[in-house]
Design goal:
The chain is α+β, with helices and mostly antiparallel strands and 166 residues long. The chain is 57% helix and 13% strand. The protein has four helices and four strands, in the order αββααββα. Strands 1-2-3-4 form a four-stranded antiparallel sheet.
């Protein structure tokens, strides 16, 4: 596959994932905010509006605003720019490019949220069985997690490289 075609595919995936993330967050804000949690499948799936000022599981939410801006906006933005440069400038396998594109799209979705919502990310999904539950998350988090899992699978099950000895 040519670099142009791969870059076009990466760009399309970014647009679709970030668009889906932002659309679902907007719907959650309109229909779930100020409402009690909604539950389906015997409370296995729960929709519950939350605004998170921290990172995963609200970690860092109690830090000073300046430190939160640096750790959750400035630093991630620099990392996402670097990742985008690698994705579009280097020739990497398509499967790896797709996995990293998912990570990039999730990061962009949450960064956009923080920029547009005064440092907060909208979360609205929660899964669980009985007392065992996930934290509240969003589509961007699903993209990041899927991308990381794919990278682990690709790295773990990648065929060994043959070494040339002379």
């Amino acid at each position: 596959m040519s670099r142009f075609t791969r870059s076009l595919l990466v760009l399309l995936l970014l647009i679709l994932c970030v668009g889906c993330d932002q659309l679902t967050k907007d719907v959650a804000h309109q229909y779930l905010a100020l409402q009690p949690p909604q539950s389906w499948f015997y409370d296995t799936v729960r929709l519950q509006y939350a605004e998170n000022t921290g990172a995963f599981l609200s970690l860092g939410g109690d830090l000073s605003e300046g430190l939160r801006v640096f750790l959750l906006q400035v630093f991630p933005a620099l990392c996402l720019v670097a990742l985008a440069m690698v994705l579009f400038a280097r020739q990497i396998p398509l499967s790896t490019a797709i996995a990293w594109s998912l990570v990039l799209s999730g990061g962009l979705g949450n960064l956009l949220d923080r920029i547009m919502n005064d440092g907060r990310v909208i979360d609205f999904m929660n899964l669980g069985i009985g007392p065992l539950r996930t934290g509240i998350f969003n589509v961007a988090d699903v993209c990041i997690t899927t991308g990381v899992v794919l990278l682990i699978v690709f790295h773990t099950f990648q065929p060994p490289r043959s070494s040339v000895q002379g």
